[in-house]
Amino acid sequence: MTLKILLTTAVAAMALAAGAASAEDLNPQTRANLEAAMHGEAFANLKYLRFAEVARESGNDELAQLFESSANVEANEHFAREADALKLDGTNDANLVDAMAGEQYENVTMYIGFADQAEAVGDLRAAAMFRQIASDEGDHYERYRAAAERLRQSR
């Protein structure tokens, strides 16, 4: 990392530390922008990892390493800094509640809706994939629910 990047990162970290004491103190638009940025960084990370697989499968290790390096920056620098700004570090209870809500939405609403829409236009393979993923999301929900129950019982 160059000195300029290190200094920029340090200044940004100090500004965040000196600024909002909690994520609730952020302006709603800033909060929405941080969430949108995190979604973009997470998507870029996974997309670049997939691009690296394709490059490696085609015998281009140099290109694969470039994609992997960029993916690492997207997740471990950009996403991590944005998550810190949002104070995305709740308690185990709060994190489980958040995870369960997301998985349940994906299980019973999002993927079922996607499957229904795909079926309506004749994209049957995509519809079947969406239904299978919905089932996976239900399994994730149940695993988080069981973990939350174990956490409550351990107190």
Kindly describe this structure.
With 155 residues, the chain is an all-alpha fold. It folds into two domains: 83 residues; 62 residues, Ferritin. Helices cover 84% and strands 0% of the residues. Helix 2 runs antiparallel to helix 3 and helix 4 runs antiparallel to helix 5. It is globular.
Secondary-structure map with pairings?
Layout: H1 3-18, H2 28-57, H3 61-85, H4 92-120, H5 124-153
Write a concise keyword list for the protein shown above:
155 residues; Ferritin; 5 helices
Please state the structural category.
mainly alpha
Fraction of residues in helix: over 70%
User: Please, how many domains?
Assistant: 2
Helices and strands, in order, run as HHHHH
Largest beta-sheet characterization: none
Shape: globular
Distance from first to last alpha carbon:
45 Å
Low-confidence stretches: 1-21
What's the Cα radius of gyration?
20 Å
Strand content: under 5%
Could you give the count of β-strands?
Answer: 0
- The averaged pLDDT comes out at 89
Number of helices: 5
Summarize the structure.
By secondary structure, the protein is an all-alpha fold.
